[in-house]
## 1
Amino acid sequence: MLEQIPNIKFLEENNFFLIAGPCAIEGNEMAFEIAEKVSDICNRLRIPYIFKGSYKKANRSRLDSFTGIGDLKALTILNEVRKHLGIPVTTDVHTEEEATIAGKYVDIIQIPAFLCRQTDLLVAAAKTDKVINIKKGQFLSPKAMQFAIDKVIQSGNEKVLLTERGTTFGYQDLVVDFRGIPEMQSLGVKVVLDCTHSLQQPNQNSGVTGGKPDLIETIAKAGIAVGVDGLFIETHPAPSTAKSDGANMLPLDKLEGLLEKVLKIRRSIV
C-alpha cells in the first residue's frame, strides 16, 4: 500500500517509514525549514518520509488556543512543500467537508483519534481516494479498530494505515501497550507509532496539554523493537515557542540522532 503514496522514496530499503513535522502549520518559512531538514536527514539515512502539519486545530482545550493561520493559507503551504520538495504530505481533518477540501492538497488524510468512530467522516475521507491514516482512539482496544478499517474499505478505499497514540490512563496520562502493534497489524494494515502524542499529559488544570518529550526516544526504540511499520514524530526548531503541542514535541536538532539509533535496532531485527 505504501507504494501508492505519491513521491515516497526508499521503500526498497525495508526501513520503517517516518511521518514527521510540526503540530500545526505556523507559516511558510517554518514549514519549509522543518520539511527541508527532515527530508535531508531521511535522504541520507534512506528512510521513506512523509511531511506532516495540521492546517487547522479543532480539538483545543480553551477557546483562546491557537487553531491555525487560515485554512486555505495553511493548505497551500502544505501543497507547496509537496511540490517543491517532491515529498508526500499529510494533514488531519475533522468534518466531511474538511476531508473533501484537504484531499485536494495532500496525499494522506489523517483521522484524529477522538474521531476514529465517526462514520460520516471516515466515509468522506475514503471517497477522496487518498491514503487514510486512522489514529486509534484513546478509548478503544486495538482489535476494535477493525470496524474503522471496514468503514473505509467498504466505502471503496483499501488504502488504510492505523496509528497507535496511547490509551487513556486515568485523567491526565496515556500509556502505550506495545501488544497492540502486532494486534493491529494482524488486521491487514501497516501500523504507525505516534511517539509524541503518546507522551501527552491531557486535561491539565491550566487548559494547556503537557507532555514528556524526554521519553520520545524510549517510545521510538520500543516501537521499532516490536516491529512497527512507521514512526510519527512531531518536531519543531524551538518547541517551547511552538503555537501548538510544544510540550510533547521533539526538538528538530535531536531528530537525526534518534533516527540513527532506531535504524540500528531495525537492522538488527529484520
Note: Residues 2-8+16-268 form a domain with the TIM Barrel fold (CATH 3.20.20.70).
## 2
Amino acid sequence: MFEFPLPDPEEIPFTTAYDFDLSIDGNGDPQIAVVVGVTGEEPYSIITGISVTTGYIFTAAFLLSSTDKGNEGS
C-alpha cells in the first residue's frame, strides 16, 4: 500500500468512511459496530483491498460498547 520509506503508523490516516448512529441494547448499554480502515482518496472512502504481499485486508471490524450504561470507566 505504501512505498519506501514507509510512513510512521501515527501518520497513516484511518476512518470509518461514514457517519453512524449509537444503538442501545436491551440492557440500556450503548453499542457501536463499525469497520475501520485506511482512508481512501475520496471523502467518506475507505481502502478495502487485500495486500498482495501478506494477504491481509486493510480493514478491521470493531464493536465499541459499554456494560455500565456508558458511565465513565465502563
Note: Residues 2 and 8 are 11 Å apart (CA to CA).
## 3
Amino acid sequence: MVYREFTFKVPRELYDFLTSSLFSLGCMGTYTLKEGKEVEFKAYFKGPLDLPKELKLFLVDEGTLKERNWNEAWKRYYKPVKVSSKLWVVPSWLKGSFPEPEGSLVIYIYPGRGFGTGTHETTRLSMRLIEEFLREGESFLDVGTGSGILSILARKLGASRVVACDVQEGVEEEVKRNAYLSEVDSIEFVKGSARDVKGEFDLVVANIEKHLLEPILPDLATKCKGKLIISGILKEQRKDFVKKVEKLGFNLRKEVEEGIWKGFLFTR
C-alpha cells in the first residue's frame, strides 16, 4: 500500500476550511508543524488523489510513503503528550513500553482518520475541562468524536452512559480500536450528529471547527441537561461565539486557552 503525504501552508483563518475539505476527500489524518499567522501542516491519504485547484494554492510539498514509511512518519511526529498532571495521550505502538506514571490516566490512540490524537490544542483544552467538570456516574455525549479520545476519557473518569457520534465514514472502527487499546468498553456509537442521538445528557462536548459547530448549536442545547463543553474556537472568534451560545440559555462558567485556541464550559 502506498500513502500520499501533502504539506500545506495556509493563513490561520482558512485552516478550518482547508482541513475540512481534506477530510471530505478522505484524509486519514493531519499533523501540525507550525502554527501562527500561518499554519503549516501535513495531511495523509491512502492511494492516489487529485487535489482540487483551490487546495493546490496552499500546497508546499507532496510525496509518497510505503506502508513501512507511513508507520515511521507517524512515529516520528507522534509522541506521548502530557495533557495535565494526571492525563497522558500515548501512541498505540508504545503500549507496554511506556512507563505509566503512578496515579496517571493514560489513553492509547492509534492515529488514523479521526481527529483527536492529543497533539492539537483544542483536544487538550477539551480533555482538561472534562477532567475538571465530569462527575462519576454522569451521562456524556461526544459530538464529532473522531478518534474517540474524549469518550474514552469520559469512561475512564467514571461516566455512566457514554455516546459518541460522528458523520465521517470509518470512525466507528477507530473508536472501537482506541477504546480496546485504552481498555475501556460500553461506548455507544451513533453514525450521525447530535440530532440523531436519543436522550439527554449531563455533559455534552463538541470539539469542532466553528463553521461546522454553529449550525448544530440548537441540537447541542436540546441534548444538554446541564454542562456544555466546547472547543475549536479561535481567540478572535470568542465574543461573537459566546453570545450565540448564551442566547440558547447557557451561562459561561469557565474559559481556557492554549495557543490561538479557546475552550469553554457553559451551564444551564
Note: The CA atoms of residues 155 and 184 lie 7 Å apart.
## 4
Amino acid sequence: MDVGSLTYYSISPRMLNLLATIHQRLGEVHARHLHRPPSDLERAYHVSAVHSTLAIEGSALDALPIAELVDKPGSAAEGSVALEAVNTHRAHALLPELDPFIDRDLRQAHGVLMHGLALDAGHFRTGPMDVLYGDPEPLRTASAHDLPVHVQELLRHAEEDDFPTLLNSCVLHFGLVYLRPFTAGNGRLARLWQKRMLMHHWPVFAYLPVESFIQRTQPAYYAALEYADRRGDCGGFIAYLLERIDEALAELLDSSDPMRTRQDRMELFLLNGPLRGSTDRSFRRKDYLNFYPELSTATASRDLQGAVHDGTVTMVGERRTASYRRSG
C-alpha cells in the first residue's frame, strides 16, 4: 500500500460547493472576531466537545458528569468510563502545543487519550488488526507492516499536498481510521487530529463543535467510512465531513454575537490585532477601532482606560495623541 492509494478521492460538485460555502463562512467568522469564544463560554464548548467525542464511540456518560470530571480530574479510576472523559479533556487541552504533521506528537496525543485504558498507549501496534464498521464480520485485516512509515507519509501528504486544507484534513481523518495505527482509540484520535490540523489554519476550530454534528448523524458517519474503505475512494466521506463543518459554522454564525466583556475584547485584540502578542510595538485608539468597527469611540476609550487601570497595557502621551503598549 502506498499513500497515493490511501489518499485517493473523486471530486464532486457537492464537494466544491461546500468548500466555497465554508470558506465564505470562515471569512465571516474572521470579520466578526469569533476566533475564540467568550471566556465564560469556553468551558461549556470544551465539555461539549469531550461529551460528543465519547458519545460517538458509544459512551453513555452525560455532559454533567463530564463537566464535574473536567473540574476534578483526579477522581477518575483507571480503566473506567470516567477516565476516558478525563483523558479526552487533557488531550484537547494539549492540542495547541502539538504539531499536527509530526508523528511523535501524534503518538503523544494518543498516549494522553489512552492513558490507563490501553497498555501500549502512545505506541504503534505491532500486529494485525481486524477492521470492523459495525458488522460482526471484519471488512479486512489491517497489517502492521511498515506502519510507522505509512503514518509519516500520511502526515507529510496532509502538510504538503497542494489541494485545499479542508480537503486534506478530511483525508487525514480517513487515513488514520484506515491505517488504525494503534490497538485502540483510532477513531477519537482521527477526529482530534483533524481538529488540530484545522486549528493550525483557523483558530475557530479549537472550539467549533463539529463532533456534536457528527454525533447527531453517527450512523451516516460510520457508513461513509465503510463505503470509502470498500471503494478505495474517500470522496464521499470528505463530502460528509464538509457537511458537518458547514453545519457547525452556520450554527455559530446564526447565533447572536456573544456579549464580550471589555477584558475579552482587549485580550482578543492583543492576541490577533496589529501587535499579535508583541510588547515592542505600540498602537493607537484608531487601531483598536479598526479591529472593532462596531464600537463607538467612547466605548473604545473606556476599554483602553480600563486596560491601563488593570495593568494590561501602558499608555504614553495623553488623550488623542496617546499610544499604548502591551505590558510585560
Note: The chain has a mean pLDDT of 88.
